[in-house]
Structures are given as C-alpha cells and as structure tokens.
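Sorry to interrupt, but I need a hand with the structure work. It will help me judge whether the discrete encoding reads sensibly. Write everything out right here, beneath this request:
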Amino acid sequence: MSRSLDERRAQHQRYKEDVQARGKSFYPYAMFHDTVMSLVVVSVIFGLACVWFFTADEASEPTGASGSGALGVLYEEKADPGTTSFIPRPDWYFYFLFYLLRIFKWPDTVVLGTVGVPTIALVLLLALPFLDKRRERRLARRPVAVVAAILTAVSMGVLTYKGAVAEEGTEATGDIGRWIQENNIPDGEAQQGAEIFAESGCTNCHLYLGSGVANLGAPDLSDAGQSMDAARLKAYVANPRQFGNQVMPVYGETLTDQQLDQIAAFLEASKG
C-alpha cells in the first residue's frame, strides 16, 4: 500500500514539473483559445441562420418547395394547435430512447425503457472514474473498456437508426383483426380500408367497436354503413368542409383516391 502511494506521489510530482517546464498558464493562453473558438462557432451558427432566413420563402405547396432558399423553406405548413391526428416524434438524438419504448411495452416493462436503462447507464458512467483508478491509458491494455465503448456506440447507433425509420401508427392498429371479425368486414378493399382507418389516426376522435375516443363531438363509426353509402362516405372523408364539418381534417389532401375508396368500403361494410 505504501509503495503504491509513493508511486502515485512521484508521478504527480513529475506531472507538476513537466507542466512548469513546458506548460502554459490557463490565463491568458487557454482562455484566449477558448474565446476565439467559441466566437467562431457562434458566428457560423448566426451566419447560417441569416442565410436561411433571408433567402428562404414560404412553401408554395403542402409538401414544401424544394428549390426555395439556400437552406430550405421558412416553413412548409403552419402549425395547427387543434390537430388531433399529429403523431409527435423526438429529435434525432433521442431516437435511441424513442425506440426503447417499442421494445419495452406498456404498462408492464415501459419503466425499464424510460427510467431503468438510462438511469443504470448514467450511474455507471458517473461511477467509472471512482471504480477504475489505473493509470494505464493505452487502448491495447484496456480490453474491457474498449469492448464496452464499442458495444455502447453500436447499440446507440442501431437504436437510433431503428427509431429513425420506425413507421408510426396508433394503438388502434392492434384492433384491426377484432374489427374484421366482429363486423364481418369482407376481404379486399374493405379490410385494406380498416388498416388505413387505424393508421390515419381516425380513432383519435372517433370510436369504433370500443376502440379510440369520442372527441370534439365525432360520432361512433361502428355502424357507419347503416346510414351512408360508399360514395357519400368517400366524399365526406375526402372533404368534410362541403358537409359543414369545420373540425375534421381534409383527408383528400393526404390520402390517394384509392385509399379513400378503401376507407369508404370499410365504413360501408361496418354495420355495427
């Protein structure tokens, strides 16, 4: 124990002598370098923001004008605070946590993905300097640390990629099979329409055989086929404004004509 302590003291003394012989004081040298680099970074960010703001125009189409400005359009579509179909997504650097929620399912294990795994990783990171006190810094002689770093980087990379390409949907997609069985939805367009109905977020405002929520006065569509035929249903879904509905989204702008036919076929087959 005494020998180890003496070695650490000797190494620390050599470090101080080396700093005195070859090092430079923090002020003004290091402070000057940090200040200059900070100014460069802030200037680049400010310059890019100015280029984007003064060269960009508003999008001329809902999908955006790809040729507008040097760095893209000002915005593509104005935010709608009353929307009920928007599915939020995190920024790219949170995609790995976002995908963990697809691995750990609600409600039994979701606490592991939101609290357990990130907390354990953070605790290990904070404890590492206190657990590993060796002076060895050569990577070839630190296989455990190297393997752990590689596995961490690969895991976060894979989870980030999977989170970026994950297809969005609503919880109602898990009820499609039950809908088809209980309402005797026929094969073909009607069953395809059931999938589009679930994926388009219709159950954010409508009830269908117990799925979804009744929101903003939207009716239960479990028996929509008893009161409306496919043509009227298609026209209503495509543009509810012509029927006096100012709340429901205009799906004719986001869905193709074939998809509208499929939804109409599904709703027409829904007899309750």
The domain at 88-168 is CATH 1.10.287 (Helix Hairpins). The mean pLDDT is 82. The radius of gyration is 29 Å.
